[in-house]
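ligand=pyridoxal-5'-phosphate
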Amino acid sequence: MPEKLTPTPRILMGPGPSDVHPEVLKAMSSPLMGHLDPEFVQLMDTVKAMVQDTFLTKNPLTFVVSGPGSAGMETCLVNLLEPGDDCIICINGVFGGRMADIAGRCGAKVHKVNTEWGKVTEPSQLKKALDECPHPKLVALVHAETSTGALQPMEEISEMVHDAGALLMVDGVTSYCGVPLKVDEWNIDAVYSGSQKCLSAPPGLSPVSFSAKAVKALENRKSKVQSWFLDLSLVKNYWSGAKRAYHHTAPVSAIFALYESLRLVLDEGLEKRWARHHEVHQYLASQLEPMGFRFLVEEKYRLPNLNTMFLPGGYDEAKIRNALLNQYNIEVGGGLGDFAGKLWRIGIMGESCTHNHVNMLAGALKELMK
Ligand SMILES: *Cc1c(COP(=O)(O)O)cnc(C)c1O
């Protein structure tokens, strides 16, 4: 017989998932309910309103994809791109690369703007891309690159994209509910996020929002969306309140958890939550820099909730990272791509964003690096 499930409680300080509030865990263990139960339909309406409030948008087409952040990414791209469409994808880490891969699979002509990992895309780079491809249908960027810890400034880029008549698509997976992400103010046409980063809900759901302009692009498609499951012309009817039509079975328990985590975010207040992430980031720097850790990213582009830091010289990063997990139950992330074996990705997201978390990490490191 397999043993009863007893996962070891961990302190999650990697690139996600992050720690989850006890009330969110409790919500997940509530009795199940039918996904077409009027009470659940009402709950989905409330979730939609809470997603609008946290994305700072009034977009009517705002909903939650039943799938992780990558499913949100794929939802935006498969609905907005058709074979032959030109798009510009800005790549400065893993997730920009993933967007380009998906856009290519949609049959779009992908124009890549490549930037060194750890840096952000400069407006001048986008200008050059727009000189070569003046009328793209869509320009996509990652707001918070979790593979590098860089935070992309959006406002100037947004203006350039709209001046070119293109749709602006943004990956807000790691920025959502951790740093300012202002969907309406920044004129973002398509945005997706994930539940397990600064929202501090379990992984597996992806909040998404489309502007009126993006909805028009969807309505004007010449071809059917190649994915049935992610086709918004079908999915949107599932998120339309009492008129709701069966599409798939919503992950009921996960939506309960999402509801509770969104309620906690709104109860704290977005501005206070952003300030908390900024303040704990500074505290982390004050604890680790004197130990010899140094940041990859230039200070003004640093993502407070995901800290990419090189270890002081002479230490075997994998050995210490494994000891943190096995002896102290603390998870931090290793580096990706060129940074594998060279740096750590230390997440202080949502419930994992407290002085206590930083103290636990710094204390354990002081013992391990003696
Ligand atoms: C985590 C992440 C994703 C993918 O989310 P999954 O839930 O792992 O599919 C996409 N983009 C960014 C920036 C992320 O951090």
